[in-house]
Amino acid sequence: MSEERTVQFGYERVSAGEKTRRVEGIFRSVADRYDLMNDLMSLGSHRLMKRMTIEMSGVRAGHTVVDLAGGTGDFAALYAPLVQPDGRVILADINAAMLEVGRDRLLDRGITNVDCCLADAEALPFGDASVNCITIGFGLRNLTDKERALSEMCRVLAPGGRLLVLEFSKPENPLIDAAYSVFQSFWPGIGRAITGDADAYRYLVESIKVHPDQKALKLMMSDAGFIDVGYENLLTGVAAIHHGRKAYGEPGGPQDGATAP
Amino acid sequence: MLDPKLLEILVCPVTKTSLVYKSDCDELWCRASGLAYPVRDDIPVMLEDEARELTAQERESLSD
């Protein structure tokens, strides 16, 4: 038997490499229709959730912002006007198909101050303390090694810089939890009708169920080195925005989150 | 063409050291890791698995 580390892929345990490959395949398969599916599954609320996340970001002119696992670029489009004139937004994703959809969409909307970059959240290609804010929306769940990714995010943030994690979570109201489970049981069928890929949406449902709940994710962020960690539930916890900051006083880093290059 | 502002903060994902942009071959070279990251359609591909290993000569050319 192989002693390779296994990780959760939906309800299955698979090797770390296998998870990375399968998630890649899923997003390649659904890239074109990804936003449409998100609209349907969240009844349009994912856009509102993204706006709420941005409002908690404190991002302003001159900031460097990374939209991580940013796929189709919703966050990048919202941040782009906030960082003008001399800030920048980097749309980063590990999946080339998703990133191409995102870039084309930004160009269609006339947004030109977003740079795209293929990157692995677990091995970020950004310098230490080089970023003021990182947002990861509905992406953390799909990462193979979340602890490693969170510590990478902490590394690249400038002191005082902020991480915002928007992710499906665990409804705290049992009635809503039950109703939401029924709703989720329709997703694979809806997914097949719209993207032709039911398995991708079966994975989506399973991956939400096995994702750490609010308190577990909060602890993971603290363990990764973030301070002032907290979360806001959305729709009683169907989704949650977790937020944390990089501590000040790291040797060699700028003392103000606003002064990252 | 790679945005110079992006290049300012990009580092090698393996060694976290700075990169040199080679416009003739549209690659980002890292001396420390000896890897060359391709830039495809203006998108830098900062993935170790997609990088090419620099030849000894190429790596040497980065020494100053």
Give the topology, please:
The complex is a heterodimer of chains A (261) and B (64).
Chain A: E1 6-9, E2 12-15, H1 16-30, H2 34-41, H3 45-55, E3 64-68, H4 74-79, E4 88-93, H5 96-108, E5 114-119, E6 131-137, H6 146-156, E7 157-168, H7 174-185, H8 187-195, H9 198-210, H10 214-223, E8 226-234, E9 239-246
Parallel strand pairs in A: 3-4, 3-6, 4-5, 6-7
Antiparallel strand pairs in A: 1-2, 7-9, 8-9
Chain B: H1 4-9, E1 20-22, E2 27-30, E3 35-40, E4 43-46, E5 52-53, H2 56-60
Antiparallel strand pairs in B: 1-2, 2-3, 3-4, 3-5
In the CATH hierarchy, the architecture of the domain at 37-169 and 211-259 in chain A is 3-Layer(aba) Sandwich
Written as H for each helix and E for each strand, in order along the chain, the element string of chain B is HEEEEEH
Which assembly state applies to the chains in this document? heterodimer
Q: How many strands, which pairing sense, and closed or not: the largest β-sheet of chain A? A: 7 strands, mixed
- What's the number of helices of chain B? 2
